[in-house]
Known about the structure:
Helix content is 81%, strand content 0%. The chain has six helices and no strands. It is elongated. Helix 2 (41-68) packs antiparallel against helix 3 (76-102) and helix 4 packs antiparallel against helix 5. It is mainly alpha-helical. It has helices at 9-36, 41-68, 76-102, 110-129, 139-170, 174-208. The longest helix has 35 residues, at 174-208. The protein has one domain (9-208): Methane Monooxygenase Hydroxylase, Chain G, domain 1 (Up-down Bundle). The termini are far apart.
Amino acid sequence: MPKISIIPRxxxxxxxxxxxxxxxxxxxxxxxxxxxxxxxxxxxxxxIADLEHEGDSIAHQIINLLHRTFVTPFDREDIALLAHxxxxxxxxxxxxADFMFIYKTGRPGERAKELAGIIVLAxxxxxxxxxxxxxxxxxxxxxxxxxxxxxxxxxxDVAFRAALGELFTDSKDMANxxxxxxxxxxxxxxxxxxxDVANVLEGVALKNA
Length: 209
């Protein structure tokens, strides 16, 4: 006999979305810890990989629940897009950390630390925003956090351009330039994906306010 869940499916969607956001914050914090305390690198990168896999699992659970649910708390397309974009954030965080390890870059500089810090702040804003989706009366709060995520993404763009400029100015080692350019691109893309999440959240908030 199949198991019968006593938790309404609508609540499950919100629970999984919030779990994904928390996982995103944990992944970002692990990256921040990695770049600021460059020791035990292999184990730290392994933890980030585990969190990225957890993010994949949560995204799959959301999509599977979509396939089994007739009535959803908001548009099906928005739920699917939210699941995928949040998962993308952890993917790019993992890529940045993984390439630091694979390329044996050595201790990251101040720009990597700056970008990692911005990623943490943006992820935290997502985690603060998503619980408000449960209540139509709180949709305006979602937009407040989306505005802050957009501001942080702009900060990341500035930091990214500065990082590239310094990289090509300060280093004559072409291999090092290529390595760090790719890592910076992954970090900056993580903030871009946070902005993508914010755009989805803002759309949901405006449709359901």
